Amino acid sequence: QVQLVESGGGLVQAGGSLRLSCAASGFIFSIYNMGWFRQAPGKEREFVGSIHRSGGDIYYKDSVKGRFTISRDNTKNTVYLQMNSLKSDDTAVYYCAATQESIYATEYYWTYWGQGTQVTVSS
Fold first, then answer.
1. CA angle 65–46–32, rounded 5-degree value
2. Residue-wise pLDDT tens digits, 73-117
3. Which of 33, 42, 67, 75 maximizes the CB count within 10 A of its CB?
4. How far apart are CA 52 and CA 71, in angstroms?
C-alpha cells in the first residue's frame, strides 16, 4: 500500500533547527512531485513548500523562504524539510504529500498524504 511516513518532529527552542524526513513506499516516488504542508491548532492546513520530481524546481510559502529547505533523494524514496531559525508560528503538525500534478497544485490535487509529525517551537 501507499505510505508516506514523516519523522523528525519534536520540541525545539525558537531559533533552533529540525530536519523532517518523509519516507515513501508503494508508488514510484521518482515520478511524483512532493510537498510539505502544516496545520496549527485551530487553523486550516496550509502549504509550506514543494519540490519537482527531478528536484530541479522548488516552491516555498513566503514566510519560510530563506529558513526552510526542501530536498529529495530519489534513490532513498525520501523527501526532507530542513527547518532553520524556527519561530513559534512554525508550531504545527507537518505533513508530506505527493502529486502527479504541478508543484503549484492546490491541496485537492495532492493525492497521497502522510500521518504527520508534530513540531513544537517554544519561545
1. 80
2. 999 999 999 999 999 999 999 999 999 999 999 999 999 999 999
3. 33
4. 10
Give the N- to C-terminal CA distance of the chain in Å, as an integer.
40
Q: What are the percentages of helix, strand and coil residues in the chain, rounded to 5?
A: 10, 50, 40
Tell me how far apart the alpha carbons of residues 25 and 87 are, in angstroms, rounded to a whole number. 31
Q: What is the DSSP letter of 105?
A: -
For the chain, give the mean pLDDT: 97
Confidence of residue 4 (pLDDT cuts 50, 70, 90): very high
Give the CA angle between residues 19, 21, 25 to the nearest 5°: 175
**pLDDT in the model for residue 96:** 98
CA pair distance 49, 81, nearest whole angstrom = 9
Q: What is the pLDDT of residue 87?
A: 97
3-state secondary structure 31-83: HCEEEEEEECCCCCCEEEEEECCCCCCEEECHHHCCCEEEEEECCCCEEEEEE
